[in-house]
Amino acid sequence: MNAEKAKLGSHLLESIRATRESVGEGLNDDEFTRLVRCPSPPTEAGFTLISFCDGVATFSVPEQDFATWYPKEGWITPEKDSVGRMIAEKYGLTLGEPPDEPPSCRFPSAEPVITHHHLEFIAHRTTLIVAHPKYLKVRLFGAAAERGYLRISKVPQLGPELLEDLSALYRA
């Protein structure tokens, strides 16, 4: 696998995509994740692959100060929002800021609830990227129904510099 990693290049998303395509559907996502992470997990732009599941690569991120993400009032700091908007514009995506956890009317809290939000980058009603201060998720493949079974289908490729661009959200 190390020789294949080196041959695939230094762009982590392209390497994951190419490796997944090269192994086909013979491995489930857990097996594929273990294959890619051996002997050590690949990294790029400060992100380290945690897992690949259901067509989504999940990465650990550099340690974040929540104050750089969440203002005292509001959803996301203007700085992170601005970087997110620039990334969304560059890749032709829609930027959303959904809550990390939706409020519950079934189990209301007696304490004031502070709702944090994260950034989602969306194309054609599909969330392609989730940028959270604790993790990053990038959809590489989607599931498409075809004649009664699911097959792996590609989602729009966003380019080899995507992780480098997203790393701007995680800089101190």
Plain-language structure description:
The structure is a single chain. With 172 residues, this protein is an alpha+beta fold. It has one domain (2-170). It is built from 5 helices and 9 strands. The strands form 2 sheets. A 7-stranded antiparallel β-sheet has the order 1-2-3-7-6-5-4. The chain has a two-stranded antiparallel ribbon with strand order 8-9. The radius of gyration is 17 Å and the shape is globular. The protein starts with a helix and ends in a 6-residue tail after the last helix.
**Helix fraction?**
25-40%
Please trace the helix and strand order, writing H or E for each element: HHHEEEHEEEEEEH
Major sheet description? 7 strands, antiparallel
Terminal CA distance reads 34 Å
Low-confidence stretches: 1-8
**Estimated radius of gyration:** 17 Å
